[in-house]
# Entry
Amino acid sequence: MLSFIVFADVRHHSYVLYDDIIIVNSPHFTSDLSLQNIISTAFNPPPRHIPYQMPLPLIAYMSLWHLFGENLGIHHVFSVFLHTITAILLFIFFARTTRRVGESAVVAALFTVHPLNVEPVCWYSGLNGIMAGFFFVLSLLTYSYYTRLPSVKRYVLILLFFGLSLLCKPTIIILPLLLLFLDLWPLERTALSLHAAGPNIQPPADSPLPHCRQKLKWLIIEKIPMIVLAGALSLVPTIMAARPSAHNGFDLTIVQPGAFLYYLERLWKTIYPVELTIYNPHPGDISPTAIAGAGLIFAGIIMTGLVIHRRHNDRKLLLSVLVGWLWYFTCLAPAVGIFTCSGRSIGDRHTYMALIGLFLMGTWIFSAITRYLKTPSSIRFLLVLLIIGAFAIISSRQVNQWKDSTTLFTHETRLHPKNPKAHTNLGDAFMEKNDIRKAIHYFKKAQELAPDKAITNTKMGTALYHLGEFDAAIGYYRKALAIEPDYTVAHNNLGNLFLERGETTKAIEQYKKAIATRPLSYKLHNNLATAFIQNGRVQEAIFHLNKAIAINPDYKVAKKNLENLMSRIQKGELSPSER
# Structure
């Protein structure tokens, strides 16, 4: 219920111009839910902006469009529903494995309402993370049943849910390692777990420990089928689909210089989740005060656990702190490894699973402190309610920022007025609404902030082109190409401008240069064919229309243009021999 209160407004939300437009405008996602279309969309190479395969989310998008059409509010409600079910499963998992129902409920509540989880839930393109989280937690819960009474059937279920999570997001590859940590605590499947509970403590009657008293190597061997599955469904397809241009490089190395700053930055945002944006600053740009504060929190948590352990011999608390940190570092490691190499910042969506480790650790420390201070249960309940309530209020306000593109990017420009990308995207939002004057205002601001970027000059040129100011537009396009001679968008847009002015020879020249940088773009081949038709070069037009159709057999525009061209030839309006 709490989840639907916090995320109630998503039923009125639309998409945002930040990857969402790829899905909304894709004929594959919005067409028939046929078996052929499902196979084509889900298992062909992913779109250019996606660095990995994610077949299940793509099928989910197709199903939502088939069932609810353009009512995107219902699509968003589906994400909220899945997020809520994941939180419930998380509660069941911790309540079952720790036998601490109250603390488990707090962990699940924090996961439900924390502001850092607003982005993955409200962002239409974030469905893959939500689905991966659902199957991830389902894998954990199934594993807890398996450890109590091991069987082949239960192990196969673990592999099934793990495999489904990998088909949503390859970063779930860390699950086998995380399960090893959970074997230590709270599953208590190792001799070390038994020792940590105290030298005279015996395992519970229903503990799986007697079945697994072997050395650590046997617990590792137990995970080998999962590791093989992860390699087959995640690692290999990701490497094959990786494009260096997508992230300025792709590296699976986790330990990189400055990587720890990412962990501290996300820790700080977990404690102090204000001014959240889709463009998080790079850790190198974060104020030293925030980094120092996160470092003190990091050290304080460890010291608190050690002090309580020393004074009260609470070794299980020590294990909960250890496993909480390991959970956090392990789940965030794939994103840290990728983004440290690329120099980009980690988004809120990348911490969706990692936050559980922090919630687990924080809840158990809070419980231990209040217990040893003999704090009345009513005061403890009130404190928890205040914390969860504060996060819920912040989250509900953050939800409103994701209503549509103009709302989101206006918020971005307010928080980061010197970020050219925020101004560019806000300009795009106004372009979509055909408010060209406002778009030019923000494009000009972006161009002033980043005059040496090809994209900012191209955006200005496009806006001026729509206003009919062709000469000024050409100037900005030329400037963009002087900065980046192979910038496909500038070549294509300049070709469109020349074509509209009737300068077909110049248009053909620009389209050819665009195709040289992106030879598999069916739209570029269609544009070049259109220019050839106007230039009277029929054979070349036919060749490029056929090329466009060969690249994308479902591209109706090229099919229609080829049909019209052949009709004109049959009527004698054009000669097929014209070159």
